[in-house]
Amino acid sequence: MTETAQAAFKPGKGAGSTVGVALLGMGTVGAEVLRLLGERSDEFTARIGGPLEVRGIAVGDLSKPRPGVDRDLLTDDALGLVKRDDIDLVIEVIGGIDYPRQVVLAALRAGKSVVTANKALIAAHADDLAAAADESGVDLFFEAAVAAAIPVVGPLRRSLAGDKVNQVMGIVNGTTNFILDAMYHRGASYEEMLAEATELGYAEADPSADVDGYDAASKAAILASLAFHTRVSGENVHTEGIRDISVEDIDAAKAANSTIKLLAICERLVDDEGKESVSARVYPALVPTSHPLASVSESYNAVFVEAESAGRLMFYGNGAGGGPTASAVLGDVVAVARNIVHGGRGPGESTYAELPIADFGDVSTRYHVDMQVDDRTGVLAEVASVFAEQGVSLKTVRQEELRDGARLVVITHSAREADLENTVDKLKQLDAVMAINSVIRMEG
Amino acid sequence: MTETAQAAFKPGKGAGSTVGVALLGMGTVGAEVLRLLGERSDEFTARIGGPLEVRGIAVGDLSKPRPGVDRDLLTDDALGLVKRDDIDLVIEVIGGIDYPRQVVLAALRAGKSVVTANKALIAAHADDLAAAADESGVDLFFEAAVAAAIPVVGPLRRSLAGDKVNQVMGIVNGTTNFILDAMYHRGASYEEMLAEATELGYAEADPSADVDGYDAASKAAILASLAFHTRVSGENVHTEGIRDISVEDIDAAKAANSTIKLLAICERLVDDEGKESVSARVYPALVPTSHPLASVSESYNAVFVEAESAGRLMFYGNGAGGGPTASAVLGDVVAVARNIVHGGRGPGESTYAELPIADFGDVSTRYHVDMQVDDRTGVLAEVASVFAEQGVSLKTVRQEELRDGARLVVITHSAREADLENTVDKLKQLDAVMAINSVIRMEG
């Protein structure tokens, strides 16, 4: 459904009206949202034009002690809560996909606006959620789903609505950035830093969503959808994590005046005939130390946007945690509540461009290929000719002697993924190539 | 008028309706806006839900050749144009204050929404313009007025609407940043670099608005108003420019591992009794080279925001020029046009907090004081006791021998402006102090 179809929406309740709020989830973010709704209630009333009133809180476990929370507000029936007549606005901070999807759909269909911080939900089900919001003429806002308090959803949806975005590239997962940053600065291994991240509470007991890139992929899908007015879901994002990044890779990055970052990249591709397509991908990549993304340290996030008229923009800040996430949620709450009081509706999903998703093999980038080869005359020529046959041209070659053979590090010019993949396959078949130690992309 | 009073606004024209646009001004930005309105018209229609149609262009000189522009659209009667029934949305990119104020007021009173890039206008007359917009229930948007395409107005108005902003600090004038950056990196004088900036088109023939800080002061007023929900006008901003920054000051900055930047600083002050006030100020200041603002080079802009929940955020990009300014204008145009088609209204001026403007003397910061003193025993004690008497404590003292006397460079801990000013007055009265070479604040 394109924006053109979003015609009707509900009139406002009128200035001074109270907005009834349902809060779904009382984890770190939910508790902080509830606390701030109380602490800042006067400010919110002034900014909205009417007071917010939390009228129900859905939790999984009613018996758990929750000091300071009015027990009468608690319920374990989220579905029943969101349909209640006295609820205008639903804040979803449960997490997960299937259950929140069911509840959020029910809320939207019942004509309630929804604010969510749930990136996995939006990345997987933007289509039917947006359709339900359109049908009811209500808002579905999710600034907190990408990079917490750093405003990127708003700028892409609104500030850059008059521009043509060509690329969005960012560090959008704090856990992996913490691990890679520590590996770079302390020379430690992936396993050691993952253990430390878990201890510090940066990583979950099951770290897969972070370290395998799925969390970043959800965010990439959301960013690509907004940037290119095309529906991109998590499944469309080529995703590689950081589990295989070794101490040797970090050392190789240093030798190339670079660091390694897990990047989410959303790109508008244009082929020789001018046909446009969209690529969204997540992988660890070498980033030159002179690039601003290289200096994004610890668990910080940063997003670069390159647009035709605006040029290059960067947004930087704390991309996770209860406070920053609550800030983004509450910004959306104020905007949505204003619409409930005064009438009107924020920009909905915009997918009019309907660009095709590019085949990952057609994406072009540069590569850092680290291999172990026989140390004899003619090997370099053999290796170089394999690259040349696949149309991959070389930018730099560095060879060093090892106890057993030689190490050959090649940096390519921009080449197609498919061509690079063929090159690597062919290199593996060469007798002279003993091992391909790593193939890492280079960006920025 | 607070947001609570913004109740009524006009219903939408309906999906598919054409939005009639009047463009005021055909300078660099106006011409680029017009070009992009043509080039991106399909995208705009899809994003808005109805087409934009430029129905009139007001210019100062009708006889000037304007290739590619339909002459039938041109008029020199801006006031007549904005009142026409077929105009829904007015884009003001004339510049100046009095004349655009008259035209924008007329447009708002006639029920037309306005998008402007005019920082001086907004900083001087936000009060009656916002009141007129409120009365008519229309939008008055001005993202382009601060830092061009870098979204800062939107994030402060919307994304951070649920947070409590404590400080906004930024480099918001590209011309002065170009000059200071070149002085720092090339060791050149202010006069040389101003001449070069003028030649490159960065500086106007009369550079006063830039180099005396007035342009930055307008932006500081706008940022402070948005951040603190308090009306702050350009007159409330303590403003100092960069004309007096010498090669010696730059050298002193380097010796202190710092660079010099013209900063716009908006701060929420809290006194001992918890009473809040707002400070907005513009002055050149030492910024440590390790601070992200120090590496903002050439004519780039960057804005730091520190909010209670979000923590520190940074926005970075190209803060001037036809393309970036047009990008910001057109982002606003899409948002305003959506409201015209579908109904609804963006957040208006929000001044409910009505915090008092702090006296500049009550602002605290650190200082770098560079003076020439007699080179004899007891002078340092004399000087130090003057600081101590005014309650200004010293962080570092560096003394070096000169041919004639000694040079004494003092860096203070945070101190009140008024106390520092008294200190400097007293120092000047000391026989031992031959000259105060410079007093520069330190931030970041």
TrEMBL record, chains A, B:
Ranges where the ACT domain occurs: 368-441
InterPro entries, A to Z: ACT-like_dom_sf, ACT_dom, Asp/hSer_DH_NAD-bd, HDH, HDH_cat, HDH_CS, NAD(P)-bd_dom_sf
Keywords recorded for this protein, A-Z: Amino-acid biosynthesis, Methionine biosynthesis, NADP, Oxidoreductase, Sodium, Threonine biosynthesis
Requisite cofactors: a metal cation
Residues annotated to bind NADP(+): 24-31
Annotated NADPH binding sites: 119
EC number: 1.1.1.3
Recorded family membership: Belongs to the homoserine dehydrogenase family.
Residues where L-homoserine binds: 204
GO terms, molecular function: homoserine dehydrogenase activity; NADP binding
Active site: 219
CDD domains: ACT_HSDH-Hom
Broad EC category: oxidoreductase
The species this protein was found in: Corynebacterium falsenii
Pathway noted in the entry: Amino-acid biosynthesis; L-threonine biosynthesis; L-threonine from L-aspartate: step 3/5; Amino-acid biosynthesis; L-methionine biosynthesis via de novo pathway; L-homoserine from L-aspartate: step 3/3
Function, as annotated: Catalyzes the conversion of L-aspartate-beta-semialdehyde (L-Asa) to L-homoserine (L-Hse), the third step in the biosynthesis of threonine and methionine from aspartate.
Record's protein name: Homoserine dehydrogenase
Catalytic activity: L-homoserine + NADP(+) = L-aspartate 4-semialdehyde + NADPH + H(+); L-homoserine + NAD(+) = L-aspartate 4-semialdehyde + NADH + H(+)
GO aspect biological process, one term: methionine biosynthetic process
Pfam families, sorted: ACT, Homoserine_dh, NAD_binding_3
